[in-house]
Specification:
Belongs to the Cu-Zn superoxide dismutase family. It contains 1 helix and 9 strands, in the order H-E-E-E-E-E-E-E-E-E. It is α+β, with helices and mostly antiparallel strands. The protein is globular and about 60 Å long. The relative contact order is 0.21.
Length: about 200
């Protein structure tokens, strides 16, 4: 009987130690995962970022937000989301002046075009403005989004690449990527000034 009690006591201690070890191992794995996640967030927050709050222009009901994250390799991750827009296809450009004060957003000036070249389709045409982006498709629910990596942009870099201080413009119609100087995209229905996030 004494032997049995001793055996059970030893078994109980072994079980507790084993469970404790398993819990410690599990805890260490969780700590490592949390640490890696924090490191990734830290790296992400260290990247230069900019944002534009987009307001309506030309009597539209559009609003939205554009975010720019400098990847540090000559590209910028661009993310755009809009709501209250007319369903259909809308041209998106960066314009030279960070000024949305005019009711029709003409205060933003023409396309950002530091190289003084013809308008075209980014990634397809031989020539295109630094501010040429793409077309945004808005669904029947009046919302739309666009994500892309843009080569040749920066957040806070050289004047010829820096998106900060420009205006993002959403047009009423699609960009045909051919008509000069701006793709026959129609009135400006949304405008936002790109500002660096501190």
């Amino acid at each position: 009987m004494k032997f049995l009690n001793k055996f059970l006591a030893i078994a109980a201690v072994f079980t507790l130690v084993s469970c404790g070890g398993a819990k410690q191992e599990e805890s260490t794995e969780e700590d490592t995962a949390a640490s890696e996640e924090m490191e990734m967030e830290k790296e992400e927050s260290a990247k230069p970022m900019a944002m534009a709050a987009i307001s309506s222009a030309s009597g539209s009901t559009l609003s939205g937000e554009a975010n720019f994250t400098d990847n540090g390799d000559g590209t910028v991750a661009f993310e755009l989301s809009v709501s209250g827009a007319a369903p259909g296809t809308h041209a998106i450009h960066l314009h030279a002046n960070g000024d949305c004060s005019a009711p029709d957003a003409t205060s933003a000036g023409g396309h950002w075009n530091p190289a003084d070249v013809d308008h075209g389709k980014r990634g397809e045409s031989q020539m295109f403005h630094a501010g040429d982006i793409d077309n945004l498709v808005v669904g029947e629910d009046s919302t739309g989004s666009l994500s892309m990596s843009v080569k040749g942009w920066s957040v806070g870099g050289a004047d010829s690449t820096n998106v900060v201080g420009k205006a993002i413009i959403i047009h009423a119609s699609a960009d045909d990527f051919t008509s000069q100087p701006s793709g026959a995209a129609g009135p400006r229905v949304g405008c936002g000034v790109v500002k660096e996030k501190m």
